[in-house]
Amino acid sequence: MSSSEVYTASTTAPVNIAVIKYWGKRDPKLNLPTNSSLSVTLAQSDLRTHTTASCSPSYPPQDSLLLNGSEQDVSGPRTQACFRELRALRKQLEDANPELPKLSSLPLKIVSENNFPTAAGLASSAAGFAALVRAIANLYELPSSPTDLSRIARQGSGSACRSLFGGYVGWEQGSAADGSDSVAFQVAPASHWPQMRALILVVSAAKKGVSSTTGMQTTVATSSLFPARANETVPRRMKEMISAIENRDFEAFGKLTMMDSNSFHATCLDTYPPIFYLNDVSRAAIKVVEAINKKAGRIVAAYTFDAGPNAVVYYLEEREKEVAGLFKAVLGEKDGWQGERGERVQRDAE
Ligand code: 2P0
Question: Which CATH architecture best describes the domain 7-189?
């Protein structure tokens, strides 16, 4: 290779929003979870990270990562784990094929752009690490499957493993100490249930107060509700959720989604000191969903909240007017739903 040659590859990865939540690590270093989880991957055209990975003998010797134009620290163990694993796979390829350029020994330059607020409880780390891992895998021309890449992305951020697949995606907690069986799997492609929609209500685009990593560690250490959630409730609901998706049963999907969000936030409140992710506007959104469902006489809308106050409301396309329309009518004028403190955006699930 010439000393000025630049090798490059790009990809995008979408945000995923869990309907059965990941909360708790049995191994914080490898990001091995205390329970399995399940999410819906949003459409590529909506909330996503676009990442370009490149390497060149002409680059400065240190790896670098630029996110939305600002330089990020890549020395943390999570980013380092992803770089190390991907380089090791490239090295294996180079050893087996001596004619290949020795990219594994070159400095990496990663450039990422999110088209949504970073670290506002909108799963930015999920899309971010998924895109980072796939961009480098493409750059290195690795023969890795999405499952293999999910195993690597998980070490960047747990929820990132689910953004390597589209549609309805599970993350099997696994039991191996080395994390080899803690990977994502596709439950169904988006085309299986194309009527699914997600309305995202950005209550606050501010960075969250308690990081997921810190929050979940404190929950595991202090909540007495947590063991029942991790060992009994979630394993049962994972099976029920997979059936609901397979049968395109929105009532079951919606009820499980809302109950699991409530269960997750209950363990947050039961954490000591307590963790509050929901605020008054979040609770107003829950009330609106309840009113919509009461009026319909069945579950046609389902809320869920991650580690922040922003609501995601799932519904089917045929209920667009009732659900998205009512949210606009009822909450559009309220403080906290528009203006400087937040914007209201509507996003379709793929
Ligand atoms: C989820 N969350 O399943 C849950 C629901 C937040 C609430 O995954 O420490 O950023 O990087 O593995 O993946 C957020 O946790 O945590 C998360 P790390 P991550 O989507």
Answer: 2-Layer Sandwich (3.30)
